[in-house]
Design goal:
The complex is a heterodimer of chains A (733) and B (206). Chain A is of the alpha+beta class. Chain A is 29% helix and 26% strand. Chain A has 3 domains: 24-28 and 434-571, Aldehyde Oxidoreductase, domain 4 (2-Layer Sandwich); 35-118 and 188-264, Aldehyde oxidase/xanthine dehydrogenase, a/b hammerhead (Aldehyde Oxidoreductase, domain 3); 276-432 and 582-732, Aldehyde Oxidoreductase, domain 4, CATH 3.30.365. Chain A has a 7-stranded mixed sheet. The longest helix of chain A is centred in the C-terminal third of the chain and has 28 residues, at 501-528. Chain B has a 5-stranded mixed sheet with strand order 2-1-5-3-4, with helices on both faces. Chain B contains 8 helices and 7 strands. Chain B has 206 residues and is an alpha+beta fold. Classes of the chains: A alpha+beta (733), B alpha+beta (206). The structure holds FE2/S2 (inorganic) cluster (FES).
Chain lengths: 733, 206
């Protein structure tokens, strides 16, 4: 019976160490091929035309002039006359041609007429949304400690009123977070080619195993006739799980034309169609006792998921710190933007930004240290087992940022000219359990090891994780493992979303590796005349556990396989009973900022993340994931937002020059510590892509509030919003 | 910020389509000047139209490539020569994703026309590897895990090469101030800083 466990820390030679990514060189020398880079012979270029209006009916569409443009080989409508268009940039038609220039000319030759309809894009404006008939009730929940007396219909209101009256401090405010886009630097799209009635789609996807079937149905072929291939993907962040309608069209056009077709969205259409994260605005009233422990919470929130997309889920309000009494009610607003897509840690960043800001305002109101207030509120962390972990992580983070020395009451810090500084913090949580995954391991008689998994690498280092797990299992160096991922023809693995990949592929690789090793060990055992169970694979050898001399080199051992390689395919078994992986992580983030009261500019000074994630497979790439999440956090906290013109519904900043994102000089000093005591390591592998992107909004907003003594209630904290809040505060004072 | 126009193009004021379309014949005239490879044809002062074969010197080797007057250097490299390291990310070079060196100057390949590049020395990211030999800059990026998805990385590496050529002894503060023309969505900045510092220390920007 094989026991599926990890070696101890002391016994691990590569597991948990800092290992360079095995695909680092191709990525850093331009030789890695992304879907955008696949250049089959005679590939035609396809580009789409977007609708200029945010809400319109297509009155006429004339493609004939475009078809006559020299170099254009096909023009295809994506909307019919009479169709209603619900967002600016929805795709109307596609032009295919020999060169970018011919395609551009073709797109300009398309004549389309529209009847414009009423537009609504004001996702933050409840009154306007109601007036426009664009609202729908969102889910909600009421939880009160006290049982209703009899059947008083007003019990809920009365009880909430009583709880607020009893509170030592009450904060009322409106907290919000604007919509942002995914802004994958490689846009959505694919390069499609057919051979002998079979399609190969080089699709920019987070889901190689799940997309072949999606291609097949509309093309009237079966999934086995489709290969989805993606060695490298230029960003996904949750927006690239499915075959999009323009991908299906590229495959169809390629079939019709008898030549490969590449259809990638251009930047403008990428931002308008390729995915956005829903905004959220919460009107909250929060009551706490004199120590700042939250006792009661009442929120009405507003969220817009775009046309047909899912708004922020109510379950994240309040976030992590959930008092015994709360009420949440919500309204969804229907706006003329493309449907939102899952964005790294769906719902959580919004929940955190909308609610942990109010907790910090309680601290400000009571004149207490925010750290103490967060610490006292750990009693309100729903998962009791995690309270102690947060407490430990808070201590470490506070030390790393020197909280006690640097903290000052809100708005009472030293001034350097017009510049004030401040500290803020936030807590986050995520699941990160592994997805179903299958791994095939092939051990060749010459000692070569190959592995095949229908997974993908989003930049997190999937290949390297797989190589580390198998290298550890076989006692080989990481370079000895040839990792194959990125094809739907490999054993199926789940989509890379929700931080499920590292758990998934570690499980399946460890299972397959150990299963293969059992078979190999049997051969070695009979050769050496020792029991197979007494053998270990270590340091490039398979030998008896208590007598390293008694053994064979890996190569010699593999030669016992005879002529054909040993192939073993195994599934991982994530879940409650697994000793290899688990679910449920937390972390603490603390930010130090400087704010210029005259210009409204916020500068990152220092940003600390302390994160638990179970057992770390590759320390180096884990830290990089956290850094990356922190940059994305700084981005939505201080820089980026989707700007919509309320009158026309136009997307105003759909090019990179206009869509503000932090650059290298904007991030300040980053410090990361992975919290991995034996108690955490023993939980096994847990994903971490999402969690550290959750807290930055609240942590940075709280730091700005601490600096200014004034809450800037809506993210991103642009200079304008900072100055507006300061002005409002001055007027109210 | 100006109002959107009826074409639904982006707000940078540059429409990729208008740029490509409009840069037909007019741009051809620019292409003639200072383009030795085209001088003979240019004598007649007839603007070039349609496909022309030009010679581009890329990574030290002359390559013949068929281009239109409106073909950008990026398209010529990616489609004509299958050198796909430089990436199409923004319309106007705002991301730094398509950076190559043109006569040692970092240049967004999507903002210049291929014909204008005749006679110039073009260096792409692919030149930084030959066989097992990898240049110090990409190697430092690998050691410091300064690429995630990697889509921005080739452009960033060219930016670093050019930056270090001018600032071989750059300090951390200078690195933070001097590499802001490139965009990374995955957030590799915190790893890029020590990677560049390592190259400075090793003096290996060769
Ligand atoms: S590594 Fe993905 S955009 Fe930079």
């Amino acid at each position: 019976m094989v026991e599926y466990v990890w070696p101890s820390k002391e016994d691990s030679s590569v597991l948990g160490k800092s290992i360079d990514k095995i695909d680092g060189v191709p990525k850093c020398t331009g030789t890695a091929k992304y879907s955008y880079d696949i250049n089959p012979d005679k590939v035609a270029i396809a580009r789409a035309l977007g609708c200029p209006h945010a809400h319109a009916k297509l009155k006429s569409l004339d493609l004939s002039k475009a078809e006559k443009v020299p170099g254009v080989v096909a023009v295809s409508a994506m909307k019919k006359v009479g169709d209603e268009i619900q967002w600016q940039g929805d795709l109307i038609a596609v032009v295919v041609g020999d060169t970018e220039g011919a395609v551009a000319e073709g797109l300009d030759a398309i004549v389309a007429e529209y009847e414009q309809l009423d537009v609504f894009v004001e996702d933050a404006n409840l009154e306007a949304a109601e007036a426009a008939g664009r609202t729908a009730k969102a889910g909600g929940k009421v939880q009160l400690e006290k049982e209703p007396d009899g059947d008083d219909p007003d019990f809920e209101e009365k009880e909430l009123a009583r709880l607020f009256k009893e509170s030592a401090a009450v904060v009322e405010g409106r907290y919000g977070i604007a919509a942002i886009t995914h802004m994958c630097l490689e846009p959505h799209g694919s390069t499609c080619e057919w051979k002998d009635g079979k399609l190969t789609a080089h699709l920019s996807t987070q889901n190689v195993s799940g997309t072949a079937g999606q291609f097949a149905a509309p093309l009237k072929v079966t999934a086995d006739d489709v290969t989805v291939h993606c060695d490298y993907i230029g960003g996904g962040f949750g927006s690239k799980f499915a075959v999009d309608r323009w991908d299906s069209l590229a495959a169809q056009l390629s079939k019709d034309l008898g030549r490969p077709v590449r259809l990638m969205l251009d930047r403008d259409l990428e931002l308008k169609n390729g995915g956005a994260r829903p905004s959220g605005y919460a009107e909250s009233k929060v009551g706490a006792d004199k120590d700042g422990v939250i006792k009661v919470w009442d929120t009405h929130f507003l969220s817009a998921g775009g046309f047909g997309g899912a708004p922020v889920n109510q379950s994240v309000i309040p976030y992590v710190i959930v008092p015994p009494n709360y009420r949440r009610r919500g309204t969804n607003v229907k706006i003329n933007t493309a449907p939102v897509r899952a964005w790294r840690a769906p719902n959580h960043p919004q929940g955190c930004a909308m609610t942990q800001t109010a907790i910090d305002d309680i601290a400000a109101k009571l004149g207490l240290d925010s750290y103490d207030v967060f610490e006292r509120n750990l009693v309100n962390v729903e998962d009791k087992d995690r309270r102690g972990v947060y407490a430990e992580e808070m201590k470490i983070a506070a030390k790393l940022i020197d909280w006690k020395a640097k903290w000052h009451p809100h708005g009472k810090g030293d001034k350097k000219g017009s510049v004030v500084s401040g500290l803020g913090m936030a807590l986050h949580t995520w699941g990160g359990g592994g997805h179903p995954s299958t791994c095939m391991v092939k051990i060749h008689p010459d000692g070569g090891v190959e592995t095949f998994i229908g997974s993908q690498d989003l930049g997190t280092g999937t290949r390297t994780v797989i190589a580390i797990v198998l290298a550890e299992t076989f006692g080989l160096p990481v370079e000895a493992i040839k990792v194959n991922i990125g094809s739907s023809k490999y054993p199926a693995s789940g989509p890379s979303g929700g931080s499920t990949t590292v758990g998934g592929v570690s499980e399946s690789s460890r299972h397959a590796g150990l299963d293969a090793l059992v078979q190999l060990n049997e051969k070695v055992a009979s050769k050496l005349g020792v029991p197979a169970e007494s053998l270990v694979a270590k340091g490039g050898r398979i030998h008896a556990k208590d007598d390293a001399e008694k053994g064979l080199s890996w190569k010699e051992a593999c030669s016992l396989l005879g002529m054909s390689p040993l192939e073993v395919t195994s599934k991982g078994a994530p879940g409650r009973n697994s000793k290899l992986s688990s679910s449920g992580v937390g972390g603490v983030q603390m930010a130090e900022v400087e704010v210029d009261r005259e210009t409204g500019q916020v500068k990152m000074k220092k940003f600390v993340t302390v994160q638990d994630m179970g057992l770390v497979v590759n320390h180096k790439t884990a830290v990089s994931q956290i850094y990356g999440a922190m940059v994305m956090g700084v981005a939505y906290a201080l820089f980026e937002e989707r700007l919509m013109d309320p009158r026309t519904g136009a997307f105003l900043n759909s090019e990179i020059a206009d869509y503000r994102l932090p650059r290298l000089g904007d991030i300040g000093e980053f410090v990361v510590e992975i919290y991995e005591p034996e108690s955490e390591r023993a939980r096994g592998v847990i994903g971490l892509g999402e969690p550290p992107v959750i807290g930055p909004g609240a942590a940075i907003s709280n730091a700005v509030a601490n600096a200014l003594g004034v809450r800037v209630p809506v993210l991103p904290l642009t200079p304008k919003r900072v100055l507006d809040s300061l002005q409002l505060a001055a007027r109210n004072a | 910020m100006s109002k959107p126009d009826e074409t639904g193009r982006g707000r940078s004021g540059v429409s990729r389509r208008a740029f490509l379309k409009g840069s037909g014949a007019a741009a051809a005239a620019t292409a003639m000047t200072g383009a030795p490879g085209l001088e003979a044809e240019a004598q007649g002062a007839e603007p070039v139209a349609g496909l022309t074969t030009i010679t581009l010197t890329v990574n030290g080797t002359p390559h013949k490539v068929e281009v239109e007057p409106r073909t950008t250097l990026l398209e010529a490299l990616r489609m004509g020569l299958n050198l796909t390291g430089a990436k199409p990310i923004s319309v106007d070079g705002a991301s730094g994703g398509s950076l190559v060196l043109v006569d040692d100057k970092p240049t967004s390949a999507n903002t210049v026309l291929a014909m204008d590049m005749v006679g110039k020395k073009i260096v792409t990211v692919e030149s930084l590897i030959s066989g097992d030999r990898v240049d110090a800059v990409p190697m430092a990026f690998v050691h410091h895990d300064a690429s995630q998805c990697g889509f921005c990385t080739p452009g960033f590496i060219i930016a670093v090469k050019a930056f270090l050529a001018k600032n071989p002894k750059a300090t951390e503060a200078e690195i933070r101030a001097g590499l802001n023309g490139n965009l990374c969505r995955c957030g590799t900045y915190a790893n890029i800083i020590p990677a560049v510092l390592e190259v400075v220390k090793g003096g290996g920007n060769g």
